[in-house]
Amino acid sequence: MRAPNPAETASHGADRYVTLDGMRGIAALAVALFHFDQSLVPHGYLAVDFFFALSGFVLYRAYRPRWEAGLGTRQFLLQRVVRLYPLFLLGVLLTTALAVHKVTHGLPFGLDLRGIAVSAMFNAAMLPSPMDMPLFPLNVPSWSLFFELVANVALIVLLFRLPRLALAAICVFAAVNLAPIILDHGSGNIGALWGEYGVALLRTAFSFTFGVLVGTLPQDHARPSGPGLLCFVLIVVVLAAQVSRFSVAAYDLGAILVASPVLLLIGTRVEPGRFIAPVATFVGDMSYALYAVHWAFIGLFRHIRDTLHIPQLPMAAIFLGAMLALAWLCVRWFDAPMRRRMGQWIAPRQTARVPLPNV
């Protein structure tokens, strides 16, 4: 991606937002497919803004009651690190191994071995690398996960304390400053490079704060089922539609400032039917793992496509299916055990009594 952020689970138990799970899963698939073959999902990068909005909503709904009950800043941030770090680290390890392989075999790569080592050290600490233009040159999509952490800090330090009017003011300020930058740049695909960190902060501030603002609104726990299918169609259209009448920049700006917030609002008000719900839950659960590790496998699947001359659409299906299977393996055999161990190390007595949170 929490996801995001693709990292978040829309909720848990009876209050789980299954439509948002499905939306997040489709968004993660769109990002992976955009990186694999941009022609199929030319606006897949817009999923990042939806991730931020969904993350703001989910974290507010999940943690605001805990914060009111006395959850401290340190405890909150430790819980977030436990949730985010294992798969983040796995993505760094996989892409570092790939980078070393390329350099040692004479294949083109933007860094030498020293640059790879320095970048890996910083990136493994969830910090931007000082060695190259991308903030995370080994696993480029990780830039959004870094800003997800920045937003998490802002949530516990500031946003929980602000009234709705102040949250709305932040959204307006970010939107007003973001719009001319995107229009001048020519698209919304901006934020992963060192010189673009200000834009990344604006994208994060608008979408994440809007999600928090939606989280402050009254929620109907008896959400109707069925219309959730419409939400899936809408997000596919938003992320995959070709530009027609509008310029790329205008389209992207509309998606960030209008379509993504509308999709979030719809997703919090309806649930999918019983046949779609299990699929939505599964792709939502796999979304963060898929987002965190897919970058390391793009070259491999492009090589398979080119060597075997597999047509575009079948290859896209193969790639996404393989990424979902890989994500399941990562969650089952790496993320879950690592989170348990980290939780026991951070708070052994609490972890023994209470399951680790999924949000």
Automatic annotation (TrEMBL):
The chain crosses the membrane at residues 44-63, 84-104, 140-160, 165-183, 195-214, 226-243, 249-267, 279-301, 313-334. Pfam families: Acyl_transf_3 (PF01757). Keywords: Acyltransferase, Membrane, Transferase, Transmembrane, Transmembrane helix. InterPro entries: Acyl_transf_3_dom, Acyltransferase_3. The keyword Transmembrane applies. Residues 19-331 form the Acyltransferase domain. GO terms for molecular function: acyltransferase activity. PANTHER family: ACETYLTRANSFERASE, PUTATIVE (AFU_ORTHOLOGUE AFUA_4G08520)-RELATED. This is Acyltransferase. It comes from Novosphingobium album (ex Liu et al. 2023). The lineage of its organism: Bacteria, Pseudomonadati, Pseudomonadota, Alphaproteobacteria, Sphingomonadales.
